[in-house]
Amino acid sequence: xxxxxxxxxxxxxxxxxxxxxxxxxxxxxxxxxxxxxxxxxxxxxxxxxxxxxxxxxxxxxxxxxxxxxxxxxxxxxxxxxxxxxxxxxxxxxxxxxxxxxxxxxxxxxxxxxxxxxxxxxxxxxxxxxxxxxxxxxxxxxxxxxxxxxxxxxxxxxxxxxxxxxxxxxxxxxxxxxxxxxxxxxxxxxxxxxxxxxxxxxxxxxxxxxxxxxxxxxxxxxxxxxxxxxxxxxxxxxxxxxxxxxxxxxxxxxxxxxxxxxxxxxxxxxxxxxxxxxxxxxxxxxxxxxxxxxxxxxxxxxxxxxxxxxxxxxxxxxxxxxxxxxxxxxxxxxxxxxxxxxxxxxxxxxxxxxxxxxxxxxxxxxxxxxxxxxxxxxxxxxxxxxxxxxxxxxxxxx
Length: 397
What we know:
397 residues, alpha+beta, 3-stranded antiparallel sheet, 15 helices, 14 strands
């Protein structure tokens, strides 16, 4: 997948594990131009501090076991886990996760560049597939009793990656053409203007990722297929037992459900994922615009837009919002609309390529996903069921 250029300041005791091309891990994984030799895959090595506090290793192991014999259609839209192991390095103990190779993410500039002839917009037939597939992936995770994000909602464009079967049978030479062979450069560390000798806590080289145009062409030219990845902020959950991780509101305001904004939940729940999924599906179908438009990424903007689009909050939140009288009547009617979102609606804004039935069905689905009461918000399986059937048909074909 290509090594992202990491800041050298991340390499310290408790931080990243220093690795170089050619290193061997766990006796049988060798880094070859950033791809694992023979059975090619992607390797994620958590920092020592993250390894001590994250559930990502146990969740990955759980998904690896759950995959065996599971026929849920959403399984195909969650990244496959090949192996997990633990290594000890100069910076501490690190959890390692080996996964299948995937391509670019939905947030990649290469996606829009590929569709430059379409005014950099994803075609409607592509967005239909993407929305349905992401919902299927979340439904599968919830079936496995996994909440994708608990302190930071990780269900965003950057964690939805494209998949192609071409990755599975390609040779190393072919993969280098697909991913573009990275440039491996030596690193010289400096303290002010004085060169610092190489330390065991830092890598000797760093790999700059290759260009993504060839990778984008493969991901987007064939049958569109995406998978949800990255469980660094995930948590286990069962209906009879709350998550063992207390809720903190470090997530982007764009994806925060109102119960998170108003600190009305002690522990994370699947209903938080459903709200974030609704935001993500809206963005996919509306040229990556967020439903609750923000100019300055401020909490009050999100609250204003929610009430304008969805109506008055539940009494406990409404009464707790001290600034409400500046923007709304007590009934929830907005006092000044000229500066608000350009489209005061939930659904498909640029809907020329969608039927009236599709727009109505999707708008109705979002209202159920954006239900203020978490206990009344629909679950992921119901969300999948309410997606227009034609969108799910293109997933199966």
